[in-house]
Every structure is written in structure tokens, then in C-alpha cells.
Design a protein that fits this description.
mainly beta; 8-stranded antiparallel β-sheet; about 0% helix
């Protein structure tokens, strides 16, 4: 793995994941990763789980997050935490962007 100390968005394409969701890799190393995730209004990130810890910071927009059995509305400036293997998903109420932080990095994203 090549470690880089700087990551410029112009060097990483926005990847269309379908369903109104797109993703741009920001930066990653073995123990951490940051990913930009853009949502169109109405887009749904289906319930899923993974062995990584995940923090999502809401840069813009409004989202309805479900984490485990709890559902709450998240807006710009709010943050969520998902412990390893907890089921989670989100519905975008108002178009926006999340910054997702993972530890360790998601090998399936690179």
C-alpha cells in the first residue's frame, strides 16, 4: 500500500454507485480511511453491517439514519458512530454529503 500525506479531490473521480449515491475516495492507510459520500434526495443506503468501526460526519443535507434498533434524523454538523457489525443504513431526506471515517480501512473500497 502506498501511503500519501496529501489527497486532492481532483485526483480522484466521483464514482457512481447507482440509486442516487456516489463516492469519492479521500485518503487511506492501513488503520484508517476517509470517504466522501454524496446522496441525492430520496437515495437509500440499505441496511448492512461490516467489521469496521465507522464514523459519519454530515457535511450537508438531512438524513434519517438507523443504527441497530434506533432511528434518528441527522443534519449538517451532526455525527454518527457505528460499532463493528452493527446493522445500519440511511435514507437521504435532503440532498447532501457525508464524510465516512473507517478503521481499519475498507479493502473492498480500494
Amino acid at each position: 500500500m502506498d501511503i500519501t500525506n496529501f489527497c486532492f479531490s481532483k485526483d480522484h473521480e466521483l464514482q457512481d454507485l447507482g440509486g442516487g449515491i456516489s463516492r469519492r475516495m479521500a485518503v487511506y492507510a492501513e488503520n484508517a480511511m476517509v470517504v466522501e459520500v454524496h446522496f441525492e434526495s430520496g437515495a437509500v443506503a440499505a441496511m448492512h453491517n461490516h467489521p469496521h468501526e465507522q464514523i459519519s460526519y454530515c457535511v450537508s443535507g438531512v438524513f434519517e439514519f438507523t443504527i441497530g434498533e434506533e432511528t434518528k434524523t441527522v443534519r449538517a454538523g451532526d455525527t454518527t458512530y457505528k460499532q463493528p457489525n452493527i446493522p445500519h443504513g440511511a435514507k437521504c431526506i435532503e440532498a447532501g454529503m457525508l464524510l465516512d471515517f473507517f478503521t481499519p480501512h475498507r479493502e473492498d473500497f480500494v
